[in-house]
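Sample intake sheet
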Amino acid sequence: MVSPQAKRAGVRYLIAEREYSQRQACELVRVARSSLRYQSRIKPEEGELKARIRQLANSHQAYGCPRITALLRREGEWVNHKRVHRLWKLEGLQLPRRKPRKLRRGPKGEVVNRAEYYNHVWSYDFLEDRTESGSKLRILTVLDEFTRESLEIRVERSISAIKVIDTLEWLGLVRGLPGNIRSDNGPEFVAKAIQQWLQENHCQTIYIKPGSPWENPYIESFNGKFREECLDRYAFANGREAQEIITGWREGYNQYRPHSSLGYQTPAEFAASIVSPLDLLENAKLEPKTLSLTGA
């Protein structure tokens, strides 16, 4: 039977051997022994922050670390972006890297007639999606290029030029028409009915060259976010359900989602921070347009 003295001697020997090994390792890699023994500890307040980061990441799965940081700051908690990034990595919340796609790039240059103030230039475009049963959905998106606000997203089985005019008329009544509208050369946008209506309402058209989506970057960027954060994440039973879900997403995009190109303000916050539309019209020496309704 081993005596207590022998046990204590054996323990002291093991401790001395471990310390000797650590000392040799420190001398080999040239680090202090205190650094070698250090174990990081998460502070109690960081545990709460980490839980909130995971909650936001689960609610907004397409948001990256910078946008989650902006949401935390909006909640009244000023946090260092490096701290959030460290906890983000500890939780393994990194978004998967996108595979680079070989795209046909056009010549680099400035956007033609870049928006300079509220309601200066709008963009509109079409997307397509399908319901669970396979029925096609046609989606019209309208964007203010200066404030980045999503003005309207209309979902229909099909959208003719008359329905496009109906959407523009409604936006003209609640917001006022822009000086310019940018679009591709789709049949709905070059239809004679739209051309006549825009001419009657003194709204100029800016058409991009065929096969040149880089000339319409704002609506293309918006459509990419819209598809990634909404269309690809929901299965729609029918067109009515699609319209309700998409309308809710559009309101969240304008009122809640931080926009990186606006200094992580929401489009609604940015629009509220600029000069009022009437002051802009007066400063630009422009007269408000009178809306001409179809059939009036």
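Comment: The mean pLDDT is 81. Residues 4-37 form one domain.
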